[in-house]
Amino acid sequence: MSQNFPAMKNDLLLRAAKGEKVERVPVWVMRQAGRYLPEFRAVREKHDFFTVCRTPELACEVTLQPLRRFKLDAAIIFSDILVIPQALGMEVLMVPGKGPTFPQPLKSPEDMERLNHNPDVHKELGYVFDALTLTRTKLEGQVPLIGFSGAPWTLMAYMVEGGGSSTYSKPRSWLYKSPNESKKLLTLLTDTIIEYLIGQVEAGAQLLQLFDSHAGVLDRELFLEFALPYLVKIVDKVKSGLREKGIDPVPMTVFAKGAHYAIEDMAKTNYDIIGLDWTMDALHARQISNAHGKTLQGNLDPAALYAPVEQIAEATKSMIAKFGTKSYIANLGHGMYPDMSPDHLEVFVDSVHKYSQS
Amino acid sequence: MSQNFPAMKNDLLLRAAKGEKVERVPVWVMRQAGRYLPEFRAVREKHDFFTVCRTPELACEVTLQPLRRFKLDAAIIFSDILVIPQALGMEVLMVPGKGPTFPQPLKSPEDMERLNHNPDVHKELGYVFDALTLTRTKLEGQVPLIGFSGAPWTLMAYMVEGGGSSTYSKPRSWLYKSPNESKKLLTLLTDTIIEYLIGQVEAGAQLLQLFDSHAGVLDRELFLEFALPYLVKIVDKVKSGLREKGIDPVPMTVFAKGAHYAIEDMAKTNYDIIGLDWTMDALHARQISNAHGKTLQGNLDPAALYAPVEQIAEATKSMIAKFGTKSYIANLGHGMYPDMSPDHLEVFVDSVHKYSQS
Question: Is A2-355 assigned to CATH 3.30.365.10?
């Protein structure tokens, strides 16, 4: 339980999440542990992707790698959103150059019978909990540790489509052809995610982020019917479930990539932090978040890290000027790309330090 | 020249484009000629994709196929946005299950030397002009004929990335690393597109649509620097170029998929019609378009055609109620998917007829 972990030396992230006063804007970066780091590639040369996820020592090692280089204000546990479909009995392969691939996707609602409808989350995903506990201990209170999960719609989209897609037309067809069966699948995912996230906090996670990576292929109407209610159930049940166990709820972030049409809808939920992709307007989002007492996270165009370093510093300064230093967590608007330079990420992180002293 | 073509029997599209009064909202559908039609698949079984594009009789035949089934108010010439990179000397293969692929993408700005910087558009793309003239003649004035082009940023994105991508991180890196070289490439594309579109109108096209399919990976700042100025140059130069030739300019549509952040910016240009993808809010877009005297086009979620037919009719009715019947062209928010039912498209088209009599 969290009370046995080392005392926090830097809790900027947790205070910003709650809208409390901070001396400086906290910064972390999506996919800060990843292939752009040579030390990560060295680990991956010896171990395949899911072996790293499933081996607490390896997951811990790659989680800590970016902390050794950059003045980051959070660690995020190295894992993958597709561990949930795996826990439900689906095979997922990480195919080089193609990304995640399901050899046997759900071709029709009848295929849902193949799923494990009563997964033992602690048995199937205990390796994530072990990795969190080990990492939280090894962090020695240096920075908070973030846990995460894929959101129900995004996981359903992968499970039905069978991998990445520019349209996700197959899972979208389910929403129209088989709305009730879709909701059964989303409910199974939701209930599994709730148990998974409560377990993550018990294991040491201090903030939780939901990744709804495929929200952008939905319109607002579908998002309000097939994505948001499940996100709401998750935040509400995770927080109440923790309280019932006598554990203080942790701040929770919803990051629905592409859901430009639903920023206000998300601001009305019990999520503490709204993550913004790089296409979202900071000033507009700030108006909404202020009205609802939310913290914002984001949203520099990740591709801006390809720019010359002076330009990265300028862009970071300009981003902070738009968001302000209160109720704000600096981040990119999406994850790092594998061909990016660690030196350029360092300029981003250092620029947040430089330009956000309040 | 257009004056020799058969007189128009149905000019609803052209009147709606100009904001004139119409008896009924015109309707056409992106990718209305395509694999979802068995008669299209029959042609494709005998001829590969680019052979159909390059053979005026085949392009004309597949352009007319959907008109024989549905009460559509426009034909759109069967072609592909990647004919422009081909005209600049790049090889493009249509790989089944993968989509368009460039065996030799532009790996660095130096690779631009490989391009043909003075393409003879009439020689390289004369087959499109021939297809337009043949189709315009064969249409016998039944409905207007739409021509189109990919927009400069979208074509650059394909040429640099080498095919489809969920991030387009390579072309986005050019915008930050090599902005001047990027602008040279965008200018070459723009100048070629201008000549191409003027040629299309001379050959019989009565409305032109620009597809900026990858606008959604840009933020507003990049869109305003690397996409919009080229779109503006195109609309302005195509219209003035036609006037100089003594030809009446045709209405022009800009469809920047994912550019939710730039609807107002586009409304301030000389495009007549703003195409909306299915994630865009109709009421918000209508406020903007009314303020700038523009026509809107869109935007039913294409996946809605997977729904039961009664639901398609309801969704179409609701869409028209939001957009209103003036200055409006009914369409999907993106193209047809190959596994869709022609019968379901028919319900969409018929529902526009039924619910939009003014």
Answer: no
